[in-house]
Amino acid sequence: MEHSPLTKPHVHAIEIEAMLRNQSRIYNLPAESLFLRPGEFPEGIYYIAKGRTRHSILSPEGTEKILYTLASGWFFGETPYFLGYPSGLLSRTEITSVLYMILPSTCERLMDTSPLFRQIIIESYSHKMLIMRHEIASLSFDPCKERLKRLYCGIADPSRLIDEHWHPLKVHYTQYDLSAIIGSARGTTARLIGELYSEGFLRTVNHHLQINAEAYNSYLNREE
Q: How would DSSP label each residue in 41-61?
């Protein structure tokens, strides 16, 4: 689902983490740490061992558009590394995270000697390209309200049921974040959220947002 933090892209993520743990620089970063800016050349390829990161593009006026969030088990920085280009993204941690920096010499050696490493890098990059394709289609054809519904369904936790009718959310986004993700003005986002409350799609209990389980299932069934 759109902008749900992407889960581990490969069944061998545990093996990859064990392989990289002693061959990388390890960064322990608190939430909201900005670690890569547009125009900067990353030192290597990043691997998310723990936590969650957010990656955005910026307009010339400074408006942020979130492209995707990545959970543990994902790589990023492949494009600037392999092409020798500076990063075009603003990257930060959303929660406390542990990142492995794979330096060029190590990356080159593993690309030559480890079929598993090559496979994971290619799959990670390919999955993100599919997400980008979906995002382009969504921005081109779906109204903002549909993108907002899809986003909420993507971050719902269907494994938990509250009061028999409500699912909690796994990720908290501010209205600024939501606007950046769905590509709308903050006033529009606030109005759409109000409509979702009125329609019974969302509710708030003790400052925690929840999604109606029946509406969630109905929306997913429609998407299939």
A: --SSEEEEEESEEEEEEE-TT
- Model-level pTM greater than 0.85? no
Nearest-10 Cα torsion for 6, 12, 17, 19: -150
Residue 212's contacts (CB-CB under 8 Å, 6 or more residues apart) are 165, 166, 167, 200, 201, 202, 203
pLDDT tens profile 160-200: 999 999 999 988 888 888 888 887 888 899 999 999 999 99
Note whether 212 and 166 are within 8 A (CB).
yes
Roughly what angle, to the nearest 10 degrees, separates helices 115-141 and 13-21? Answer: 120
**CA nearest to 4, candidates 92, 135, 139:** 135
**Nearest-5° Cα angle at 12, 9 to 16:** 95
Q: Tokens at residue 161, please?
A: 């049921």
In 3-state terms, what secondary structure has residue 117? Answer: helix
Among candidates 18, 95, 83, 23, which has minimal Cα distance to 54? 95
DSSP state of 28: E
109-144 burial, b at 16+ Cβ within 10 Å, e below that, comes to: ebeeeeeebeebbeebeebbeebeeebeebeeeeeb
